[in-house]
Design goal:
It catalyses: (6R)-5,10-methylene-5,6,7,8-tetrahydrofolate + NADP(+) = (6R)-5,10-methenyltetrahydrofolate + NADPH; (6R)-5,10-methenyltetrahydrofolate + H2O = (6R)-10-formyltetrahydrofolate + H(+). The protein has ten helices and eleven strands. With 291 residues, the chain is an alpha/beta fold. A hairpin with a 7-residue loop joins strand 9 (235-238) and strand 10 (246-249).
Length: 291
């Protein structure tokens, strides 16, 4: 069993980006600039955005964090987005999700200039991704592709089972892995809450991408030997034996399945760290498109 170490891989990617940024600066090119808008005081979102700002500092990016109060209305948020859309110094920006319930997330996503949409959520970028055209691939699927690539996990001709059909992970992964690309050319089955005979399907899989948000759902009796498992889920479970009072688990029962796997991502330390690294990679790409 080989661990697909997202923590180490993301650190390697950040070093590569930092080197490229130094070269840009030495040649008097623009320094990449990533901005983030956060609305409200969601603890997980604040932690995540702060990690993005810290990552920008590490690789030599400029970063801007715009914090708006919970009561910010939709029109005010759309105004902030438009300011970033027309600011030539900003190469890419994200609006941290989830947003307060009184704001329409889809309307906000649609308002972001696709050329600055480094989250890859705008329909223009999703459409280009589906057509295998150059674009921003959303950070989590992009990170999974990079992990598979750097560990030389063979996908061509393999049967991939994707658990979950979210617009952020499940749907794009099913499209990307079926495309003609280095990490692709797979036969993909996408499963969801209405799928029948799920265990029969997962037991045929050479690669499983689990992104359903149900802790420790995938068990050993659902997989065959030498499978590769990409665990996208992360859930806090109460655990009095831990100093924090909880433990983090994925959608896969790691201890139960690990011995049957050829490759597997840990939780934490697998897919999670890759997401920020690929957001930085998208921002660098956005900056270089201007040069």
């Amino acid at each position: 069993m080989i661990l697909l170490d997202g923590k180490k891989t993301s650190a390697d990617i950040k070093e590569e980006i930092a080197l490229e940024v130094r070269e840009l600066k030495n040649n008097d090119y623009k320094t990449p600039h990533l901005a983030a808008i956060i609305v409200g005081n969601d603890g997980a979102s604040i932690t995540y955005v702060n990690a993005k700002v810290k990552a920008c500092e590490r690789v030599g990016f400029e970063s801007t964090l715009i914090r708006l109060p919970e009561e910010t209305n939709e029109k005010e948020l759309l105004n902030e987005i438009e300011i970033l859309n027309v600011d030539n110094d900003i190469d890419g920006f994200i609006v941290q999700l989830p947003l307060p319930k009184h704001i329409n997330e889809q309307k906000v996503i649609m308002a972001v200039d696709p050329s600055k949409d480094v989250d890859g959520f705008h329909p223009t970028n999703v459409g280009k991704m589906a057509l295998n055209l150059p674009t921003f691939i959303s950070a989590t699927p992009f990170g999974i592709l990079e992990l598979l690539d750097r560990y030389n996990v063979q996908t061509s001709g393999k049967h991939v089972v994707v658990l979950g059909r979210s617009h952020i992970v499940g749907s794009p992964m099913s499209i990307l892995l079926s495309q003609k690309r280095t990490v692709g050319n797979a036969t993909v089955t996408m499963c969801h809450s209405r799928t029948k005979n799920l265990k029969e399907i997962t037991k045929q899989a050479d690669i499983i991408v689990a992104a359903i948000g149900i802790p420790e759902f995938v068990k050993a009796d659902m997989i065959k030997d030498n499978v590769t498992i990409i665990d996208v889920g992360i859930t806090r479970l109460a655990d009095s034996s831990k100093k924090s009072g909880y433990r983090l688990v994925g959608d896969v029962a790691f201890k139960d399945v690990a011995d049957k796997c050829e490759f597997i991502t840990p939780v934490p330390g697998g897919v999670g760290p890759m997401t920020i690294a690929m957001l930085l990679k998208n921002t660098l790409l956005a900056c270089k498109r201007k040069t």
